[in-house]
Amino acid sequence: MTNSWGNVNRGDQSVHSIQFITDDFPSGKSLLPIGMRRSYGDVCTNSNGSVIDSTRLSRFIRFDQVNGVLVCESGVTFWEILNLIVPYGWFLPVTPGTSFITIGGAVANDVHGKNHHVAGSFGCFVRSFGLRRSDGQVLLCDNVHNADYFAATIGGLGLTGLITWVEFSLKRAPNPDVHVESIEYRSYRDFLALSEATEKTHEYHVSWVDCLANGSSAGRGVFLRANHLSETLDSARKPTRTTRVVPAVVGKGWSLVNSVSLRLFNKLYLHRNSGTREYNEVFEKYFYPLDAIRDWNRIYGRKGFYQFQCVVPFENKLIITDLLELISKSGQGSFLSVLKTMGEIESPGMMSFSRPGVTLALDFPNLGTKTTDLFRTMELIVAHANGALYPAKDALMSVEMFKQSYPRCDEFSHYVDPAFSSDFWRRVYH
Ligand SMILES: Cc1cc2nc3c(=O)[nH]c(=O)nc-3n(C[C@H](O)[C@H](O)[C@H](O)COP(=O)(O)OP(=O)(O)OC[C@H]3O[C@@H](n4cnc5c(N)ncnc54)[C@H](O)[C@@H]3O)c2cc1C
Questions:
Q1: What kind of fold does domain 178-398 have according to CATH?
Q2: Residue ranges in 176-296 assigned as alpha helix (H)
């Protein structure tokens, strides 16, 4: 039994770990490659099938320190990459809110980060990769060779074959750490105004929202914008992190997240971050605040939790307040939610989630039908606004919502390897 991050999807599947890119695939059952299983729902589970655990494909192949190009096997994690490149003045071109992910998972979900407005998604930096199909073919994929498989595999949810290695461009950052401005703001409209003012001045921004606030305060929160420090470090700095582990007993019983703990946490957070402050921050803390608490997903208890992430186009951006009102009234939302604007840079991925608009993401403890009903209503609001839901975070979207979110899914289905499948794919595409 292997779980995804939300602990709601527990795939009853056989796990086959491979160490070399030429190792045999298991036979007889449908296949799905997996990385660190940091996806929240069922894109990384394959009930009654096999999963190919790629985390032992963890070798670096080539690092061009002059031009900032890295080639590595698909099971290498973002944290391992940072350890290699940061001392040489390079940084990840795009990173999500955790460094516990593999490069294969980053390509297959075409992940995005706090710099989407200036950089686009991770797929924009992928130069080429190897793709191993179940019929034994190994395809070199780039803009010229197998360009159709290149487009289908970026954001292709592990369904087009096993990504064996990836070549991608890095970003110059003589100093990995950042100068942060933390700005308390009062409403969703303030968030929009701050985002607009920030897009040209700051490389990174994200906002933490109090999902309990409603009425004219709906969307209030703390806006965090940052740029890398300009002073070059005197000596090479190795990434460091101290990780606290959630005790094993947590997670076996009830969720620690409830309306009382939520109210208290949000109040404390907003109080601690009131007003406007400026400070320098080590990159580990700015980009990966949750990585400091290993297995934090266990606080939701044995029933687990769902994440909801949508993006709505700018012309319908005000619909986000309807979602925030609904979530506040339901009292089900979890600790701070994330709001962010996404920019115009188009991904090469046929199935990429990233697109221009406003994205909202937050966790919900699994309260059974109370939660699934709420998700259905939120989905309808997003559908009405011509928005999309993110498969990496999803466990509940409907067939109709998937088709609306990914209008090229029929074209994509021609590139799905006939031996590959996932719980997600069987749920949303038939
Ligand atoms: C705390 C936290 C914060 C996050 N923040 C963000 C964020 O800001 N932005 C964002 O975009 N995402 C975010 N995520 C989601 C996460 O970045 C993605 O789910 C990512 O894809 C997980 O990578 P993984 O290695 O764990 O892959 P898995 O979750 O194991 O798999 C993800 C997908 O990749 C496929 N896959 C994995 N390896 C391969 C391979 N070798 N070949 C082919 N397919 C493969 C799988 O089949 C699956 O479809 C966050 C997750 C967490 C837990």
A1: Vanillyl-alcohol Oxidase; Chain A, domain 3 (3.40.462)
A2: 188-198, 259-272, 283-287
At residue 11, the pLDDT reads 66
CA distance 98 to 430: 32
Ligand 1, from 2, 23, 39, 160: best to mutate by most atoms within 8 Å of Cβ?
A: 39
| Domain boundaries of the chain, sorted by first residue | 178-398
Tell me what the mean pLDDT of segment 221-234 comes to: 91
- Distance (Å) from CA 75 to ligand 1 centroid: 11
pLDDT over threshold 70, residue 1: no
pLDDT at 250: 65
Identify which of 54, 35, 18, 12 has the alpha carbon closest to the alpha carbon of residue 392. 35
Q: Is the CB of 340 under 6 A from ligand 1?
A: no
Q: How many residues does the chain have?
A: 430
Q: What value does the mean pLDDT take over residues 210-236?
A: 88
Centroid of ligand 1 to alpha carbon of 186 (angstroms) = 33
Judge whether residue 218 has pLDDT over 90: no
What's the helix, strand, coil split of the chain in %, to 5? 30, 25, 45
pTM value?
A: 0.96
